[in-house]
Inverse folding.
């Protein structure tokens, strides 16, 4: 109430308020950032928006960015729900490595060791198990999320390396490459995977009570439990969902590079996913989340990376830029900053 | 009846005592060394134990800093990259700018403390979660390494080389100067944590920030100092690492933050803050080092077993902490 009163006091007339009302929409800032980045590209990178059809496929920088952002978008979707319940999952990269390794090992050479559908189901199953492990630790044993997922983050990559004996597993089975490198209706197939997962998640969150429940747990877990929500089941589900998304991302990556590298697959993907979620306007304090925002966040990160590459800036600058973006976004999100801003306005 | 009741109460007091997990870690360490000595000939020599200290001196210093942060209820994910940045800055200043080594070390330590302090200030002023701020700090420090140089820079400064090659004889074995510095840091840290007002403030803030503020403690100052201390320790760890490796490289110390957190947890400090001993960092680091040494002595086990064992240990200790924490609250 108090905050709203001050806000009204800042705006002198109702008309002006109406004009700036759309600026208050949570998606304006991430979208603005994305558009600004694209504008930079449009001016500085020749032929950035150029699209052409070659052999029935759409080619161009934009398609490339979308394709490369696919694993990150998947990871960010799962991470959004976890962060919405006040949690965090830093084992995403390890799950990517594990599921990628399992799928590569089960499919193996040019003739698959087992039917591909079964192999993919098995690696998704491994990811689900990982999620269940995280969920039980957080919701059952009530460990802090960052510590609970730290365990899998450390051990998961070790397990993946144990499976492959430290080697990079190469896949030669052609149909598997379609998943991460194929084209459907002229567009990369991975985009359809992302779109399907996004649609299902959006439906679950918007058309069922799940979204409301997740928000309730994020705003006040105790109140949610007292109100009769099964918070433990809900939190477990969120971690299982996050790992499933990471598992899918792992399969996309493995299929795209035609091999599984237990050491480097999905390295630091959890950080990029957290960054994407934060950029998209989801509050790290839980409760307030936006799936669309996270997708935009993932696109911002990938566009930033592509921009840095195509501008000829050393790619190492990328990390510095990313970190400064995180600092700026986090500080501007904090209520203390808004208070300071209001006072000075 | 009453005798049984006293007995159970006695047992609860024993397992619930603050030093219980720390004791478990020490027993674990002794057991691991014992098993190692029984299975592998030559394992149980004084020098093997000294080597644990020599090889993990940088980790011990970092774990001490991390111990303060965790005691104060925070977490610092940037320590590994601050270590890398410190090796990088030292290497560049020594090799390309030809600064005297003492000035280089002083500057690096100052920069580390400022870096940590700045993160602490952001965490406190804007009430942000420590892990996201230090995560950004981790990116920033790693990125800055690559801005200095993508390649590894070899250090051939005589002082650094001397530090790396000197052997200080003690009790028939020898320690490196780095290990001795690490032990001194540990002693100073124990004094700081248990015998000064700052130490008591750290425990109070970690126990309950609100009560600490109501008691009139300067919470902001304590938090900034704690992160500055962690940054200082991380850069000192970097200097020790530079002594050890004689190079500066942006990929140095990857995952060190996780090792340091694991060492602190295994050493018996509660991750929720306010509970534990700084000395636990030593037993935690030695347990991690002993796992690596055991796996190296075995020869048939691959290095990734280290990760799996560390993960399993982390799991066991977290669950034990959780179970005992719940009981003591009841």
């Amino acid at each position: 109430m108090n905050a709203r009163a001050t806000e009204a006091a800042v705006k002198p007339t109702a008309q002006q308020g109406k004009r700036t009302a759309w600026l208050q929409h949570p998606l304006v800032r991430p979208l603005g950032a994305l558009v600004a980045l694209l504008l930079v590209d449009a001016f500085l990178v020749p032929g950035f928006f150029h699209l052409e059809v070659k052999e029935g496929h759409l080619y161009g920088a934009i398609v490339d960015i979308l394709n490369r952002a696919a694993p990150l978008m998947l990871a960010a979707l799962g991470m959004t729900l976890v962060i919405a319940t006040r949690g965090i999952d830093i084992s995403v990269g390890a799950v990517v490595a594990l599921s990628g390794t399992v799928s590569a090992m089960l499919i193996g050479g040019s003739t698959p060791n087992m039917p591909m559908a079964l192999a993919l189901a098995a690696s998704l199953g491994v990811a689900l198990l990982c999620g269940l492990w995280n969920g039980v630790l957080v919701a059952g044993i009530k460990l802090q999320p960052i510590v609970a997922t730290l365990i899998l983050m450390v051990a998961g990559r070790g397990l993946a390396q144990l499976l492959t004996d430290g080697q990079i597993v190469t896949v030669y089975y052609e149909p598997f490459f379609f998943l991460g490198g194929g084209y459907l209706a002229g567009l990369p197939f991975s985009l359809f995977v992302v779109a399907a997962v996004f649609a299902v998640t959006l439906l679950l969150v918007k058309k069922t009570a799940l979204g409301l429940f997740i928000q309730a747990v994020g705003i006040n877990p105790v109140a949610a439990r007292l109100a009769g929500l099964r918070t433990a089941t809900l939190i477990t589900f969120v971690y299982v969902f996050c790992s499933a998304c990471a598992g899918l991302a792992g399969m996309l990556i493995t299929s795209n590079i035609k091999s599984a590298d237990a050491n480097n697959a999905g390295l630091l993907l959890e950080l990029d996913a957290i960054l994407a979620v934060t950029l998209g306007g989801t509050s790290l304090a839980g409760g307030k989340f936006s799936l669309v925002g996270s997708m935009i966040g993932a696109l911002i990160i990938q566009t930033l990376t592509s921009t840095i590459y195509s501008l000829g800036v050393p790619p190492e600058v990328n990390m510095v830029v990313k970190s400064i973006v995180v600092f700026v976004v986090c500080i501007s999100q904090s209520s203390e900053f808004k208070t300071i801003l209001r006072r000075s306005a | 009846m009453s005798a049984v009741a006293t007995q159970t109460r006695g047992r609860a007091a024993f397992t619930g005592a603050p030093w219980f997990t720390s004791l478990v870690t020490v027993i674990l360490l002794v057991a691991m060394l014992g098993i190692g000595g029984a299975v592998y000939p030559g394992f149980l020599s004084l020098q093997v134990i000294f080597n644990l200290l020599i090889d993990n001196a940088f980790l011990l210093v970092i774990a001490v800093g991390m111990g303060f942060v965790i005691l104060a209820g925070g977490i610092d994910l940037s320590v590994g990259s601050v270590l890398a940045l410190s090796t990088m800055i030292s290497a560049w200043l020594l090799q390309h700018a030809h600064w005297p080594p003492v000035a280089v070390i002083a500057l690096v330590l100052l920069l580390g403390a400022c870096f940590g302090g700045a993160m602490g200030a952001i965490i406190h002023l804007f009430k942000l979660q420590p892990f996201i701020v230090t995560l950004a700090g981790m990116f920033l420090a790693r990125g800055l390494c690559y801005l200095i140089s993508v390649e590894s820079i070899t250090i051939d400064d005589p002082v650094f080389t001397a530090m790396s090659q000197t052997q200080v004889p003690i009790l028939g074995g020898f320690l490196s100067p780095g290990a001795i510095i690490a032990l001194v840091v540990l002693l100073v840290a124990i004094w700081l944590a248990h015998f000064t007002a700052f130490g008591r403030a750290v425990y109070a803030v970690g126990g309950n920030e609100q009560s600490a503020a109501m008691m009139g403690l300067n919470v902001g100052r304590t938090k900034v100092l704690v992160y500055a201390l962690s940054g200082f320790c991380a850069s000192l760890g970097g200097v020790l690492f530079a002594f050890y490796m004689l190079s500066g490289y942006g990929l140095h110390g990857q995952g060190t933050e996780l090792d340091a957190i694991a060492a602190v947890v295994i050493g018996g400090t509660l991750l929720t803050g306010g509970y534990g001993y700084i000395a636990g960092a030593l037993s935690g680091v030695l347990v991690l080092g002993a796992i690596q040494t055991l796996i190296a002595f075995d020869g048939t086990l691959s290095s990734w077993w280290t990760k799996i064992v560390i993960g399993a240990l982390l799991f066991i200790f977290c669950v034990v902490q959780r179970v005992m924490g719940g009981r003591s609250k009841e």
About this structure: The interface with chain A takes residues 75, 122, 125-129, 131-133, 135-140, 142-144, 146-147, 150, 250, 258, 261-262, 265, 271-272, 302-308, 310-312, 314-315, 318-319, 322 of chain B (CB under 8 Å). The mean pLDDT of chain B is 86.
